[in-house]
Structure formats: structure tokens, C-alpha cells
């Protein structure tokens, strides 16, 4: 089955994966990305001697390269009750399937983790030929879980425990506790680049982002906590301001843990552009 | 009726259901599922009144309907002055003795003179009085029930004038005797028939009274409770005009034992406070009757006996009726009535008004609920 979107996945930091791939890793080895020169040592291949440096200095130097590596894509999909509202879960399935397809097509391992208030299901990352079908089947079977809250922390902890490094993409509406993400920061492989590079996609329904143009009152019930609240539809402007402020607060909170994020509104046609722009923006920020 | 009364006070217990119904209503209210109601939306709730106006209207309608069911009532007293309306029945003796001519040169009979006197009495009474006519000889006939129609009464009186020779006149004349007690009992029966439906005497009660009247004087009188409560008798009077001997019962009928005793009738009238006037031509009144008519110490007299000489004229009889008219003068009375006022319609109207107001509010843009 062909994916709905085509994404150009570009990690911001070099991957730590020992497998060979299309991306320059962080360690020296066989690759195409030039790293530096060092003095010739006995046993070095003659093919790596930099003859121009020999001509300039009269000494033998050999060229060193960064080892080619592949990133491990880990998709963290929220399947809490709030994701059952509108077309958010189908959108999450489409985006996750498209991201997995893009990663696997370039032989990057890809895994899937479904979470709500806990880890619901987990598929270890793999670059095998059948991995895409496995992930697709797992996504198709996923249903909103009846839970009282959404917690990201158990999913992150699960991820950092099992995988030493990965590129994680969180697909969630972030209605719930983000919790402390210090574990993510502690797992940094080096000062230059974190071991777990995370991105967040805020998936929202149109009615969550903007109230319909009606007047009156509408009684609402929280899909997770069951709390009720009567909303005054006349205060549309205040609603939009409150929702944007709250979302900005979440974005800042995630950014504090090194997680870049963007808001995706369902029923809009710019999903592919927004996600690709996020990857490009992160890459540009690295430079 | 006390000042405040509840028709169904137990219905007040339904108020206990109100909190339960309000709670149930709130719980079963249809809610729109929403992903998250975070703290950022708390400030976007409508005001307290807008949020709860429908519950308040519902509670008010419920209270009104329960109060309509309870139906509180209060007493409304009204005092009015009115002129007493008298109910008088004139009983006229039309036995054979009343058919004698006044004098040799006139065709008028004594009965005609008596009828003239009656007509003058009818004219004397005020418009609001009710007058009935009973004619009797050996038996009694009701000529006219109690009515305020003077023309009708005069037409009925004309029926028994000697020159008209009507059928009823001929029938009464054939009787010959003077059965005054039966006539007075018939007059009392007319009063009883005017009682309201719910207080009207049953045949058993009437038969009980009749048995008392047929018995010997001094028998214990048992007046039905309905008559006591009705206050029958006030403002009522019977006028007996006869030229026969007023005896407790006619000797001719003693053997049959089916005639009421006049002394018992007078005792009954005393008990019911019905006034009784006897115009006796020739003044032949039995001692027992005269004694029964005499007042008991400390009590007002039941009436009066007017003895007239056999050779009475029109002026004398009219004078007697004028005296009776004076004795039976209409009094100015004050009537205080207490009428219960029930409030059920008000509460139903209030409930309907509140329902309409609630529906009207719901149509306003700010108050609309989805």
C-alpha cells in the first residue's frame, strides 16, 4: 500500500547507529564525509595518504572519514481516548505509515510504539523487508484506549531504556501530562548531539483549534477525565487566544527538553509541507 | 374555613423529589465529547445565570405545578346588608261554612271577603317575599307554590272565588269539613321542598316527622339533623284562615287515626321557629291548641290567634292582615359570608408563563443551548 504523504526525513544530528547507511555518523571509519588528517602510522593503507599534504609539508599524512551510518526512526503514536475525537487517529496512522515508508525505503530501521497513559504496544525497530507491513498492520489495529489521562513520560522512558539512540517522532494531541523529560536529556551521547533526537507533531482537530461560528452554549465533556464544562460560543476570539497560548506553552515545554514540534490541523492540505518544513528548519538551525 | 387551607397537603412531599430530579436532569444532560477541557478553557464559561437559567426555570415550573396540586386556599370574608325575604303560606278554609252569603242582598260569600283580605295582604308584602297558597276543606290542596309573582297569586285566588265556580272550588266545597291540621302540614311540606338538594329530607325522614304528628301530644320530637343545620324556619310563616272549630284533630277522623295532630304541628313549628298565625272566625279555638300557641316562659311567642266575629266585614279582615304584615315585617339583615378562594389556577398560569418565558429565553442567541 502506498503511503499518503512523501516525507523527506532529515535528522538534525548525525546518527549513532552502527549499521551502514546514507548518513555520516559521529565516529571515524569508512565513509565519504571527510573528517581530518593525521600522521601516517605503519600499517595504514597507501590509498588514504594525502599526497598534496605530503608535497606541502614533506611528511606523510593520511585522510580520515566519518563512518556512514543509518538513523533508527521510532514512531511514538498516541492512542489515548482524546485521539479518538474527529479524524485525528486516522491522520496519525497516515503520517506514521508515510514516515515509516520513507525511512524503510532508505534502509533505515523503523519501529513503532503506541502509548496512552502507559505503553500500549511496541514494535522493535528493524529494516527488514516485512517491517513496513508489520507496522502498517499494527497501526490499522490500533484503537483509542479508554484511559483517564495521557502520559508521555512512560513512553519516553521505555524508549530510552530499550534503544541507545534513535530519531523519535511523537504523534499526539498533547492533551495531558508531558511530565519530566530529563531522562531524555541525560541520555545524550555526547555534548554535541543527543542520542535520542525527538520531534513532536501536535495533531489537532479543526474544532479544537477554532470554534464554529455559532452563538449560545455548548456543554462539553472531557473524553478522558469525564469532566464537564459549558462553553460560551460567543467568546470565539478569547477561545482562539487561549488555545494558541496553551499550545505555545506546550511547544516551549517540549523545546526545553530539546523536542522540536509543529502543529498539524486535520482536514487541511498542508500536512506534508509542514512536516517537511519542520525537518528542513531543524537542519538549517544546526548550521 | 380557616384563613389558610391546603386541599392536598400530602402533595407537598413531592418537593423532596426536586433536588433528585435536578441532579438526574444534570446527569442525563447530553454532553458533547471533547478531547480536553483544560484549565485554559475554564475562563470561557458563560456566567452563572446563563449557565443555570434553564434549571432555575425548571425548578420554578416544578414548584408551581406542585403548589397547583396542593391547591392552597384562603378565606375571603364578605359582609353585605340585605332585606330579609319572608316565606309566607296562606291557608284558606273553603269548607261549606265559608260559602254562606254575607247578607241577603249580596251574592258575595264569606270566602270572597276572606279572599279580598288575602289579596290585600299579597299587595302589602314587598316584592322580594315569597307567598304560597293552600286551600282546604276536608282535604288540602296547594293552589300556588311559593312565588314572588303577584299576578300569578291573584289568578290563583280568583280560581277559588264563588262566582268563578272552578273545578277546584267545587271539589273543595264537596268536602265540607275543616281539616286545618292537614293544610298546615301541607304548608310545612312546601317549606321542606324548598330545601337545597343536598339537604332535602328523605321519604324516611318525612315519614318519621309524620309519625310524630300522628301521635299523641307530648311525644318526643326528633327533628332531622339536616333541618337543624339548615336553619329552616327563620323568616317563614303560616297564616291559617278558618271559620271552623280549631281542634287538635277532627272527631270524624279519630277512628281512622290518619290525621296530624295540630298541637304536634304547632310543637314542630315551634321547634323549627316557623311563625304561625290563626285567624279564627267565631273564635272557636280548642284549649289545647290555644295552650300550644301560648309562649313558653322566656321564649318569644310562636304567633298569634286573631279571633273574629262571625259577622266580620272586609275592613276587619284587612285590619287583621295589616297587623300580621306588621308582625312579619322584613328585617334588615347583615350577612357575613366566608368564601374559600383556591389558588390552583394562579399557579397553573404561573407555570405556563414560566414555560413560555423559558422557551423564549432559549431562542435568544446568548442563551441557546446545544
Can you offer a commentary on this structure?
The complex is a heterodimer of chains A (287) and B (370). With 287 residues, chain A is an alpha/beta fold. Chain A folds into two domains: 23-69, no CATH class; 73-286, von Willebrand factor, type A domain (Rossmann fold). Helices cover 32% and strands 28% of the residues of chain A. Chain A has helices spanning 51-57, 88-105, 131-141, 153-162, 182-186, 206-209, 236-256, 271-286, and strands spanning 23-39, 61-69, 73-78, 110-115, 119-126, 166-172, 196-204, 217-222, 228-232, 260-265. Chain A has a six-stranded mixed β-sheet with strand order 5-4-3-6-7-10, with helices on both faces. A two-stranded antiparallel sheet of chain A has the order 1-2. The longest helix of chain A has 21 residues, at 236-256. Chain A is elongated, with a radius of gyration of 23 Å. The relative contact order of chain A is 0.15. By secondary structure, chain B is of the alpha/beta class. Chain B has two domains: 4-26 and 46-78 and 338-367, no CATH class; 85-330, 3-Layer(aba) Sandwich (Rossmann fold). Chain B contains 13 helices and ten strands. Chain B has helices at residues 17-27, 48-70, 110-124, 150-159, 167-175, 180-193, 203-214, 225-230, 251-254, 262-272, 287-293, 314-327, 344-363, and strands spanning 4-6, 32-34, 72-83, 87-93, 130-136, 140-147, 236-242, 275-281, 303-308, 332-342. In chain B, the strands form two sheets. A six-stranded mixed β-sheet of chain B has the order 6-5-4-7-8-9, sandwiched between helices. In chain B, strands 1-3-10 form a three-stranded antiparallel β-sheet. In chain B, α3 (110-124) runs parallel beside α12 (314-327). Chain B is elongated. The model of chain B has no long low-confidence stretch (mean pLDDT 85). The interface between A and B is medium-sized, with 35 and 25 residues.
